[in-house]
Amino acid sequence: MSRIKYSPLYLEAKTELIKMIKKGDFKNNKLPPEDKLSEMLGISRSTIREALITLDREGIITKKQGIGNLIHRSTLETKMRIDLIRDFLKLLDDGGYKATVKRIKSGWTDKLTQFDTKIPSSFRDKKYFLIEFLYLANSQPAILAINIIPESVLNTTPQSEEMPFDSFKKYLSFLNKYTDEEISHSISKYAPGKANQTISKILKIKESEPIIKREEFYYGIFDKLLCYSEIFFHPHLISLTMIHKLNQ
Amino acid sequence: MSRIKYSPLYLEAKTELIKMIKKGDFKNNKLPPEDKLSEMLGISRSTIREALITLDREGIITKKQGIGNLIHRSTLETKMRIDLIRDFLKLLDDGGYKATVKRIKSGWTDKLTQFDTKIPSSFRDKKYFLIEFLYLANSQPAILAINIIPESVLNTTPQSEEMPFDSFKKYLSFLNKYTDEEISHSISKYAPGKANQTISKILKIKESEPIIKREEFYYGIFDKLLCYSEIFFHPHLISLTMIHKLNQ
DNA sequence: GAGTGGTCTAGACCACCCC
DNA sequence: GGGTGGTCTAGACCACTCA
Fold first, then answer.
1. What angle do CA B29, B240, A112 make, to 5 degrees?
2. How confident is the model at residue B122, as a pLDDT?
3. Does B223 contact A72 at a Cβ distance shorter than 8 Å?
4. A55 CA, C5 C1': Å apart
5. What digits encode the pLDDT tens for the residues A132-151?
6. What are the distances in angstroms from CA B145 to CA A66, A189, B135, B217?
7. Among all residues of chain A, which has the CA nearest to that of B245?
């Protein structure tokens, strides 16, 4: 079997399985036994299992010892999953919107008083570099993201022409370039709030309308705090969805 | 090496690794190479890797090809993670509270007008069984959970004495027993809202104070919708935290 | 007891990172 | 080029479910 190696076998198997599931190849919402799949796809059972474990983690299937691998159409159809999709353009796209983004502000600032967050003590610089993005869903304002990078983690002043990010990946590359530490993870907190005058104007909602705010702390692979972010989600356009596997 | 088999090897390895990390056994926030760990713990590399992959998924470490397995203290210290902990008692406990729960209402109902949710069309019974739980953090009301089970999925009327749930696991057992389908996953949506009179009274917050509501749909292993749930989190006591691995 | 997933191993070779 | 994780295989045996 000739194989052009552009991605790992288990990911190709995963893609293939999803395709087959969507096509309706499997009856009774159940996959064939693992050794059968192994035979069908010409891949060892271990590798098939890697694909299945990924699908299980994403909620697409449930692995049940003694029974089989059960398919969940309910999760396959679930859109805008914040547990899986972090790129807001992709999130909006997944929700069926035409997604675009514009940078509405960027530059140095020394006062963070507009943010009612308790900036952590590990994060007390004199100056911060601020970048604000507005994500549009079908041209309507949907997500406002305010990114704050402390001066101490930047090696040079970011260049404006490098900031027209059209994907989250590019924002991460940007951070990698200017902070000398590769980004690895983020810690987010969701909090209830009201839209103040500024937010309500930008997101075109009523003032003091309830809104969910996400505070996000980005860390590098060596655990250095690289960026703080406040994100406001349009209360009606955005659905913050996630899936949990129970019983485990 | 004698081994009492009460849990899989890779989970014991995982526990052991966490213990060693917390103890500070590893310098430079980096684990020893995988083959070294394999030798140290007397376990094959494959099994060690299963443990490491779990740790990576939970954000405790980051696996970097060519570099090593890097430890994140930032995530190890993160509390009340809704991406990992689903049992509210455990969530509160993790947050450092003394956690208790009381059932404040249960019984049949035919009107769901108090809920401003669009009950899905797959869920239009004449009668619903309703169970309300109030979770307390240090005796203060912290989480209100309203569970609604449609008549059509119940085999008999739930018995009151089986409902003093002191863990999420028991609620799942309860559902398993009365619905004839084992529970498997849930789909949650977070939405902003204001505390109405009832909610504000129960949670002891100001009326019309912004609050986050979680709507949760529970599904069985054969993808049948078994239960709908509305959950209100106290805006100040509860921190809804989650961790994302980036770059993947 | 047959069927199915869960755990575990030993070993081979590839891909990436850094010196 | 040496070190480290990533992928993949073949095979053995265990544990659970259902009839």
1. 80
2. 61
3. yes
4. 15
5. 999 999 999 999 999 999 98
6. 34, 20, 8, 13
7. A185
Q: Closest nt to A10 (CA→C1')?
A: D7
Can you tell me whether residue A241 is helix, strand or coil? strand
Query: Minimum mean pLDDT among A148-162, A213-227, B89-103, B135-149: which range?
Result: A148-162
So what's the pLDDT on residue B156?
A: 85
* Domain A9-76 sits in CATH 1.10.10.10: yes
Residue A62 or residue A157, greater confidence? A62
Q: Where are the domains of chain B?
A: 9-76, 88-233
Give all strands of the β-sheet with B240-245 in edge-to-edge order.
A99-109, A128-137, A140-150, A225-233, A210-220, A183-194, B240-245
How many angstroms separate the CA atoms of B58 and B62, rounded?
10
Tokens describing residue B54: 């779990």
DSSP A155: S
SS3 B135: strand
Q: Is the CB of B69 under 7 A from strand D?
A: yes
Find residues 182-241 of chain A whose CB sits inside 8 Å of chain B: 182-194, 209-212, 217-219, 221-223, 225, 235, 239-241
| pLDDT-based confidence at residue B2 (cuts at 50, 70, 90) | very low
How far are the Cα atoms of A180, A182, A185, B71, B236 from residue A224, in angstroms, in the given order?
10, 10, 10, 12, 28
Q: What is the pLDDT of residues B15-41, one digit of tens each?
A: 999 999 999 999 889 999 999 999 999
What is the fold, at CATH topology level, of the domain defined by B88-233? Chorismate lyase (3.40.1410)
Bigger pLDDT: A51 vs B178: A51
CA distance A89 to A104: 16
From the CA of B10 to the C1' of C7: give the distance in Å: 9
